[in-house]
């Protein structure tokens, strides 16, 4: 419960009380109020309000003012300040009485504001993943969301962390490790977010554990693939010392830490080739394309011809959310037909998403390179060679094709399994049969690298002859 003198707000119950009496409040006004509260006294811009509260509709500014003046009536003078031309600020509550909520966690409130920014576009096609993840948080204290680059790990983790924390009256602290490469800088980043201080110049895990204390907190350790060792040790120590804390990590590769539960996510669903209009529109990838276009103010006609082209674009991108986001931005300039023609040549050039995105997410090439840079030399060579498989392959068949004098069969097998763990290969399980494939974006990159190395003709012809000899090993 957040108390502002005579007014008390329960975010969980979506209720507002004045002098102890429940007050009527509309859903939109409450959404705006929630946004203001979670921003912990910071300015909330009109754009942020529009994106959060009306993500898919066009809203005139007057509409916001109507809700703000209703909130002002409720709160009384002096609580909600207008910053002319920019937005609004709500003073911090005089008291926070969330059950078990630790007293003054302003740093955590700041992190919650970060989560809200992430929520500004709707999360599409992830209901099942979100439910599974939510349940995993109920049961375990360390959960990792893993999956390929740009698949939506961060987006999903932040949404679920926020929902889970709200219902359990926990705080959320989000630390992004994408820009970090040492244990030292990771620990500093966590301490900074938690509002703690290092005991000496060199922060230790013990400093972080002490700062976390016995808070009821959800720690979202995001984008961990470059600092797996450091984060694994940190998570184990926090989990051992604080029985309440919940740690949700995202990484292209699981941490392999004690007690870790892993939830792997795949790209969004795609429509079958011969799907009807309703089925096409209902698939995750196509829904995201349209939601994103709407939110960005871009209109595409919804005739069957355009829909088919959009479905082809999403298939070519393998349903990868980051790729769809970039594709929408490009389709606005090239038209969907023009975009499809460009994608037929290559998909790696796609770029132009969020101005604030990390450099690894600015182009599809950069997103694969981020993973490629973390591979050993044999893993790089094996990934390149796997590009000769247009669809799925099984382990035995693949190892026959890609092993050579430089990489023996056992080494090839080890590398293929390691690539799968690092989310560079997709695992398909049908009954007892397991097969693998490369996502389109990874295959496009691997083809380029294989051509560059001069090995394409050799491995391509090995693939063709092995396919003729043992067709069961490969999908046609
Ligand atoms: N289900 C979704 N609905 C709408 N947008 C999504 C969805 N999933 C991801 N996105 C958008 O796609 C982009 C990439 O998502 P995100 O950053 O979560 O991917 P990631 O898997 O964490 O990538 P990385 O491995 O690079 O960290 C983001 O801009 C995000 O908002
Ligand atoms: Mg991420």
UniProtKB/TrEMBL annotation:
The UniProt entry's GO biological process terms, in alphabetical order, are: phosphorelay signal transduction system; regulation of DNA-templated transcription
What Pfam families does the record point to? Answer: AAA_25, Trans_reg_C
The UniProt record lists the OmpR/PhoB-type domain at: 1-92
Q: Does the keyword Protein biosynthesis apply?
A: no
Q: Which InterPro entries match?
A: OmpR/PhoB-type_DNA-bd, P-loop_NTPase, Sig_transdc_resp-reg_C-effctor, WH-like_DNA-bd_sf
Among the GO molecular function terms of this UniProt record, one is: DNA binding
Under SUPFAM superfamilies, the record lists:
C-terminal effector domain of the bipartite response regulators, P-loop containing nucleoside triphosphate hydrolases
- This protein's source sits in the domain of life called Bacteria
DNA-binding region(s) in UniProt: 1-92
Instruction: Look up keyword DNA-binding and say if it applies.
Output: yes
For this UniProt record, the keywords arranged alphabetically read as follows:
DNA-binding
The protein's matches in Gene3D superfamilies, at most eight in alphabetical order, are given as: P-loop containing nucleotide triphosphate hydrolases, Winged helix-like DNA-binding domain superfamily/Winged helix DNA-binding domain
| PANTHER family, per database record | HTH-TYPE TRANSCRIPTIONAL REGULATOR RV0890C-RELATED (PTHR47691:SF3), REGULATOR-RELATED (PTHR47691)
Name it. Answer: Putative ATPase
